[in-house]
Amino acid sequence: MRKIVATHIAGGFAAVMLLGTFGGAAPDAVAATSASINVEPVKQISGRARSWISAGVEQMGGDTSYRIGFPVFLPDGTRFDGHFPFSELEFPLDSTMLSIRFGAEFNDKVIISGALKKALTDPDDNFIDRDWITAGNPGRLDVYSESRVEDYSATIIDIDAAYKFLRRQDFWLAAGGGYLHQDFSFDNQLIRQYSPSGLPGFDYNGDGEVGLTYDINYKIPYLMLKAGSGGNGPWSFSGKLAYAPVIDVDDTDHHIYRNKMNKGDLEGEALMLSVGTRYDFSPRFFAAAGLDYTYITADGDSSAFFYGSYDHHLAEEVESSQFSAYISLGFKFWSSPEQPKQL
User: How far is CA 166 from CA 112, 128, 175, in A?
Assistant: First the structure.
């Protein structure tokens, strides 16, 4: 498995706040024949919560590279060694997304937040397929094709919780964990395929039909640090650094023209960073903006099927770089009933 060796910067998330309420005291009764006054016990509100929700648009970019290659294993255990990779597929991730973000903070200590993102547009960039198939010259690119991405879908769900272990007047730090789930699906229409090295039999123009589909699913539990500043004025800032030491990835690559399907089962790691800012127009309404970045790398095995029958399995690797910028409008509200207690 390849380790993450570079620091990546990106994205963002804005924290929130709400005003708490408190009870008071009231006279119980005044006796007609006495000057004394009996007062009910003072009630204090506990369980103060501050919460918010926002909706906006997000521009996502980046790409996912899927590679397969040697070693190859046949059903009888025979092993073939050679160059890795001998095939690479590169999928674009540029699209406009709808994003809904939400969060709650309890007693100025526990922060729960999340985001739901859904693709609204198809990528403008083309899908690219590269193949190195000459055993005697494995570094020579033998087949190259580009396809138009159609019927693209992407869904991202991210939920986390953290505890503030350091608080100052205008700054806080929190630690916790979260879970990121991503689903991407591509239908690709061939534009043009040819052989850069001049091999015969690989020259085709697309006919407008979907020739290849690809689906990939990421399950990413992670550890994180969060930080924030501001809050006394209309501006506030926040950041998040998260690392996932073990993630699960599964994907399906279907070459329709060849009746060939590859199903991958991989493990890897991921790094996530974000920064964001918020401006409060009023005690209730705010605007937010930020940047997010996610880097994923994973490797494992891929099983190949022809016409539905298992044929062999081979090595697979996936690498994904994802970045996005968002803007949103939000509303702050009381998120939970408050329980009085007597002093």
Answer: 17, 48, 10
Most confident of the ranges 17-31, 43-57, 210-224 = 210-224
- Do the beta carbons of residue 56 and residue 328 sit within 8 Å? yes
pLDDT the model gives residue 28: 40
Q: How far apart are CA 244 and CA 7, in angstroms?
A: 14
Identify whether the C-beta of residue 276 lies closer than 8 Å to the C-beta of residue 9.
Answer: no
Residue 33, both tokens: 């024949």
> How many Å apart are CA 221 and CA 270, to the nearest integer?
9
**In the predicted model, what is the mean pLDDT of residues 146-171?**
94
Q: Which domains does the chain show, CATH number per domain?
A: 27-342 (2.40.128.90)
Rounded distance between C-alpha atoms, residue 313 and residue 216, angstroms: 18
Comparing CA positions, the residue from 14, 59, 62, 3 lying closest to residue 243 is 3
**Chain-centre distance for alpha carbon 174:** 20
Q: Which residues face 77 on adjacent strands?
A: none
Q: Judge whether 295 and 4 are in contact, CB under 8 Å.
A: yes
Nearest to 281 by CA among 325, 236, 326, 240: 236
Are the beta carbons of 87 and 56 closer than 8 angstroms?
no
Amino acid at 110: V
**Phi-psi sector, 278: left (phi>0), alpha (psi -120 to 50), beta:** beta
- For residue 85, say if its preceding peptide bond is cis, omega within 30 degrees of 0: yes
Task: Report the alpha-carbon distance of residue 11 to residue 291 in Å, rounded.
Answer: 3
Claim: this prediction has a pTM higher than 0.85: no
Is residue 184 packed enough to be buried (19+ CB in 10 Å), middle (13-18) or exposed (0-12)? Answer: buried
DSSP per-residue codes, 24-48: ---EEEE-TT-S-EEEPPPEEEE--
